[in-house]
Every structure is written in C-alpha cells, then in structure tokens.
Amino acid sequence: MFDKVLWRLWPLNRFVQTPDLNGTWLAEMQSSYEDPITKEKKGRFYGYVAVKQTFSKLSVRLMTAETESFLLASRFDIKDDGTTYVYGVYQSDPNIHLRGKVSEIHYGSFKYKIVGSPIVNLIGHYWTDRNTTGSIILRDKVSSYFSSYDSADLGYKGTQITKA
Q1: Helix (H, G, I), strand (E, B) or coil at 154
Q2: What's the pTM value of the predicted model, to 2 decimals?
C-alpha cells in the first residue's frame, strides 16, 4: 500500500522527499539534431511526457509525432537545500517509416531540475549517442496518463495550453 499510494497522501507525504511526478506533461524541446536529408536543424518542437510512478519505481515515456522514448534507468538526487533532480537513461524508438532515412533507434540521458512546490515545471537537458543535445521544459501537467502521442494531443486540446 505504501509503495503504490500512501507515500503520496497527507500526512505521510510530509515525511517523504521523493516528488510525485505522476501524470502527463506538455514537453517543449529544443534540439541540435540536424536532418540528414534536408540538413535543417530540428529546432523547437513539442511532445508529451507520461509519468507513472510508485515510491520505488519510475516510468517516463516521451512521445512526439515522430518518436517514443522510454526510461531504462533513473535516480532522484535530493540536495541538502531541497533542490531535487531526476536523472535518466532512455531508449528512443523513431517511427518505423523514419528509420534508415531520418532517424535510427538511439540512446540518451537526461537531467531534470524539479521546480516549485507544488511542482510546476521540470527543466533540463539531454544528450544522445548520436552526438545531439537539447533542452527540455515539462509544464502544464494533467493527472491523466496518456499512452500515445495522439491520445495526449487529443486530451490537451480542450485545455488552455499554448504551444508558443
């Protein structure tokens, strides 16, 4: 019970430092990736990050129109001043129609700083084994868990979210 639910509830959550990131977040990313065909930089793009979490486990899935990435390993780092970071290693699986042309399966790492109490953003950066880097901001979390880019995009349509 504690691992799945109780750690998030008052008053027990006052004794637990692990942040509750459950839900789906809007992700705004900026990447150094260059399309091998057009030679254009990827620039700014958007997606969604779905988080399922218990006290002992963390699942993070990034979903864009072109790819899905899933967490392979993670760790929370809580500093003495309360500043909290989450580190992760992930695998990115591009759409099958992009493989061999635009993007291949690749691996990367990220570092997010958790901002606010209650949490309002995760701000961080990532780097990959294909020598690309980027920044990422997670914001506008909803409590629903979406398992695909299309379902998250539909779920966010009715909200006041702006992708500007």
Answers
A1: helix
A2: 0.91
